[in-house]
Design brief:
Elements: H1 27-41, H2 45-58, H3 63-75, H4 79-92, H5 97-109, H6 113-126, H7 131-143, H8 147-160, H9 165-177, H10 181-194, H11 199-211, H12 215-228, H13 233-241, H14 247-251
Length: about 250
């Protein structure tokens, strides 16, 4: 299934938690962790790692630096180390929704989709409004072939955040698979309205139009896809396959 890769870091997941251990967190640990979060958001992985490790030198039982180190290692592609840090954070504080979600994204990258699903469910049990965790739960259902659960998940996600563009796009794909091109047109149209630079949504919008025999509209959608991604082979091939006699005249 062709899906746009979500932002797995969930906006870097940099929420700084309050003290979660029985003993007070030393202020130096809090300061180093906060500074590391800013540095990581700016993309300096090396310095961020040093700052999080310094925070842990002051307080090894502080879960937030472990969670943030999980992000550092994940961004480096070191999934084993990322997973270990997220698990450390959760052992220290089991109700850490962000750490559950970050662990889930590691499992997604490892293609351990059942474990990913369970992690996102755990995150949502703690924070039902956690949009990125809910979206990644929907992705987990898709990868598991649980289309009905995926659809319900996306519809619930839209109730939580009606502007979550990827939800409409992925529903469009499900509609195409279910032989519902009119519903697919509606969902992909909503996706490109929310994000006019969403090339893959234009691709699937074109497919939906082609399925109902609207060749001119399909060609326009494929053309929009190519304007956004000139090297998109799928869009180019779809455009070449789609007849369009008279489309230019109709447009005039």
């Amino acid at each position: 299934m062709n899906l746009r890769l979500p932002v797995l870091a969930a906006a870097m997941a940099m929420l700084l938690a309050a003290c979660r251990t029985a003993a007070p967190i030393p202020p130096q640990a809090i300061e180093y962790n906060a500074e590391g979060a800013k540095v990581l958001e700016a993309g300096d992985l090396d310095r961020a790692q040093r700052l999080f490790e310094l925070a842990l030198e002051y307080c090894a039982d502080y879960p937030d630096p472990h969670n943030n180190l999980c992000l550092v290692w994940k961004m480096r592609g070191e999934l084993g180390k990322a997973k270990a840090e997220c698990i450390k954070a959760l052992r220290l504080f089991g109700d850490f929704a962000i750490a559950h979600s970050n662990l889930g994204t590691v499992y997604l990258q490892e293609k351990r989709f059942r474990d990913a699903r369970d992690s996102f469910r755990a995150a949502l049990k703690i924070d039902p409004g956690y949009v990125e965790a809910r979206y990644n739960l929907c992705l987990s259902y898709l990868h598991l072939g649980e289309a009905r659960d995926a659809r319900e998940c996306y519809l619930k996600l839209i109730e939580v955040n009606a502007r979550k563009t990827d939800a409409y796009h992925d529903l469009c794909i499900l509609d195409l698979q279910d032989g519902k091109p009119l519903a697919a047109i509606e969902n992909c149209t909503r996706a490109v309205e929310l994000d006019p630079k969403y090339a893959r949504a234009f691709l699937h919008l074109g497919m939906a139009y082609a399925a109902v025999g609207k060749s001119c509209e399909a060609r326009a959608a494929f053309h929009s896809c190519l304007l956004l991604e000139a090297g998109n082979v799928e869009c180019a091939e779809a455009l070449a396959r789609t007849g369009g006699a008279g489309c230019e005249e109709a447009a005039r």
